[in-house]
Every structure is written in C-alpha cells, then in structure tokens.
Fold these 3 entries.
Entry 1:
Amino acid sequence: MLSSFSDFMGERIGHDERYTDADLTLPADPGEISAAALEKTRQRLLAIFQDEQLFSQWFGRLVTEPKYPELAAEDADNVSHDDLLAFLDDAGELYQNEGSRLAWSASDKGILLFADGEHYVLSSESAMSLVKRLCLYQPVDANSVDIADAQSLDLLCELLKRGLLYSEATEDDDEDVDA
C-alpha cells in the first residue's frame, strides 16, 4: 500500500516540491544525515499523510482498481447525451460491468465516485444520488436519472465510454446505446 501511495503522490508533486536541503546547515561530516534533515523529511511526509482529500482519492482509487484483468472493461464508443436520453426514453436499462469496482466517499466538494481506479468529483444532488445507486449495482433507467442534470448525464456517458456500464440488447431491440 505504501508503494501505491508513493506512486500516487509522485504523480502529483511538482519538481520544485521534491526533497531539497538547501536550508539546512552543512554538517561537519559530509556523509552524515543530520537529525534536522531527518526531522524535516519526516514532517513533510506526515503533512502529506494529513491531507485527507488526497488520501481519500488515493484510497478510493486503490480499492477500486480492477483486480482481474480478464474482466476489465474495454473502452467503447462515445455516447452523446441525446443518444443516452433516447435510449432511456425507450425503456432502456444500463447495468454495471460485473468486473468493475465502484465505491463512493463524501468530500468537501460533494461526493467522489471511484470506478476502476479512477475518480470523479460530483456536486449536484442528482449526480450524488445516481452515484449511490450505481455503487449498489442497481440498473439505471429513466426513473433513476435526472435528465435535466448535465453532471449525471456526463457521468453516465463517461462510464459507458469506459465500458463500466453497458446495455443488454435483446434481438427485438432496434436501438442500443453504443456500449
């Protein structure tokens, strides 16, 4: 876990935020790592672990990473809001890919959805309600989506594109969401 967190943080730390010791006094022995250098580094690491938002993002991404590559969702074609709405209006239902892992966490900006190792920040009440439904692995239909909420529609289109959602088309269906 520590290695995963380190990698996550390494992707987010800019070059000028990496370790430097320019403000430390030179030790008498050039090979010595001083107590001051150790303490400075320890304090920087503790500060990183104290950032609850970053820690939450890392943890949610970690626990939703696909564990079985053979079940991982494949990217699909882009789906427009119009295509999605037409599909839902025609009594279509969307299902979660059985190999996908979904979870959510409250945040100061609303709610974080974690889906197969990625995260989405959502703030509208409708999108937050949709996220909770998705994490219960319940089908999504026209009754469970606020069609006036762009954030909910954007999320569904993105999850369809990533292959985390799909529709079950029957032989009688003329129209299917391109997933």
Entry 2:
Amino acid sequence: MVFSAKLLNFDKTWREFVNIKSQKDFFSGLMFMTVGVTFAWGASGYTLGKGARMGPGYFPLVLGVLLALLGAMITFTALVVETMDGEKIGSIAWKPLIFIIAANLVFGAALGGLPSIGLPPMGLIVGIFALTFIASNAGEEFNFKEVTILATILAVMSYAAFILLLKLQFPVWPEFIKV
C-alpha cells in the first residue's frame, strides 16, 4: 500500500515536472531522434573518411546526426513553448495507413514482379496507375476522373524523368505488351 502511494506520488511529481505543451511536436521530435540515431548508428559500420575525401558512411552519419539534433530541438520546444495546436494526439487513422502502405507494396510488386508466385513485372505505367488508384482511397472522397488525370500526369512525368532523362533500365509496360 505504501509502495503504490509512493508510486502515485512519483507519477504526479513527474507529470508536474514534465509538462508537454504540444504532444504532436513532442512525439514528432522523438521520432526524428530515433530515426536519426538509427541512421548514424548504421553509418558507423562504414568507412567515414574525411571531409575532403568522404567515405560511404560519412553522408548518412552527418544526416543522421543532423536529424537527431533537429528532433532534440523539436522535442525541447514541445516541452517549453506553448503552442496553439497543443492538443493531444488522436487515435491512429488506420484507413489511410493501410491504403498508403498497400499502394506502395503494390507499386513495388507491379514494377518488379513477384517471381515466387509467378507474377511478371507489370512495368512503370501500370505500377503508377495502381499506386495512384489505391492511395487515393485513403481519403474521405474518391473522384475517378481526378484520380485518372493525376495518374496519367504522374505516369507521363515519371516516364520522362526516369526513362528518357535518367535512362534507367526497368520495364515500362507489362511483358505481354510489345511496344
């Protein structure tokens, strides 16, 4: 009984000491710090080199450290500065999360195929159309005409950027379409 009373008192004291003014900024800062430290830690396994002659681990290490510092500043600001949008974080939006992740997975499968199940590569154009149509279901409303126009613009610009300008070698159309 005494232990639980001390624990409750500690919880109350802790809450008074750590007053989070903006939960969104606080947890965003923690996420930035986690990703930054992870990248910096992963880069430490590579050769760093020097500023004039950088190794493969130099750039990810610097970016990881900068991201961790940015996260620390955001977290500190969330604890000190009162903001207008300091409300609590709501529940997880499952529908957008599932549709966005599914759209990216389908894009990857369409672009490269899945040989393990016999799915041939469908190419860049089909992948972009699938990505756009699946991801557009994450929102509150779906307009077929707008999504089709968006998918067409994305497909044309991706073809121009990756195939024509950068000359990347990956399938543009499905194997069964001979263009």
Entry 3:
Amino acid sequence: MLPPAFLDGLAQNRIHQIQIDSRSTSLVQNMFRLSHAFSLVGPDHLANPDYHQTKQILELAESASLHSVWIRISMIHTLERTQFIPAPIERVWRYFSTPENLNALTPPEMHFEILGAPPAMYQGQIISYRIRVAPRVRVRWLTEIRHVREGAFFVDEQRAGPYRLWYHEHHFAPVEGGVQMTDRVTYALRFGPLGDLVHTLWVRRTLHRIFDYRREAVARLFSAT
C-alpha cells in the first residue's frame, strides 16, 4: 500500500517527495493508456482484459522499488498557448471551426482519425475520433462542442476518452495585421495521485510536444505571402 504519510500529505495538498523505479516511464504510459478501461460501464467490463491488466499495473506501481522524483499533488492542470496568425479573422475562424482540419494540426505519430464526416461546427455537436496514446495503443475519443460564439471562441469538452477532465477553450481576437489565437486547456487524469505521477513523467511533456507541433503547423498554413 502507499505510505500513510504520503496519503496524509495529499489531504493537506502539500509538496511531497515520492519514489519511482527505473521502469517508471513504461509503467506510467501503460497506466495512462489502460485508464480508459476503468471508464467502461455495463455488465461486460469485468470480462475486459484491460480492466484486469490495469489492476495489475496499479499493484505493481504501489510495490515498486523507487528513485527520487518531486511531484505536487494538484489534480487539475492547465496549459495555455497564444499565437499570432497573419490572416483575416474570417479565414482563421473558417479553418478552425471545420472539424476535419484537426488532422493537419496533430502530429502524424498520433494517427489521428476522425470517425465519420462531421459538418461545420455548431453548439452541441458530438465529434468522435481515434488517437494513439501509446505505442500500438489507440483509443476512441468523444468530444462535445459545448459553446460557440461565431468568430470569437468555441469550447470542446471530452465526453469519453483517456482523461478524467478535458476542457479546451479556443479564443480568437482580431488584432492589427491578423488574429491573436489563444488555446487554454483545463484537464485532469484518472487515478488520483497516480494519475498526477503519470502527468509529471509523461503526459505534460507529450501535450507540450503536441502544441509545439500545432504552433508550427499553424505558422505554415497561415504564413504571410
């Protein structure tokens, strides 16, 4: 079991030093990719091999011999990026409000695939797609367009997928010579403190890499001519 002192610290939301072993990277990747199994509902979930494999991984995580890593027990995370786009607001909005353009903004190694042919964005729209979250592991992700203000912002929120919470705001503000675009993501992983460990070791770095790619892709698509 996890040490009682560590659990006491969680309740006080303090910074604690915990340990992970040299297998941690692959371990937390497995925990993240298999966390989707715990979101399964219905009478067949106990027959799902991922469900039992996830339990085994969590048991291994609790009994592993450990190296030193600092993490802050903070289950809600945010990521914010701002980018200037040298194009009219109408063109920028038209591009980002078209779901099929998501593929061009996602790193190829993630094998992003929209399921079906969603129309132009509207409030309440459900978009389903598959994405790779670890080598040889792809999960289905379902998002809802929760809010839309034409030409100004929209919000997509996960309805089913690998995260416990995913709330992505897209803001567009006309400025001199173009548009200031801001992405603000509020997100959380499953598994409480173990999910936070996954975030510290792997997920945060992966998300920054995804948004770095997105920035470069947007710069290429809207380069001034």
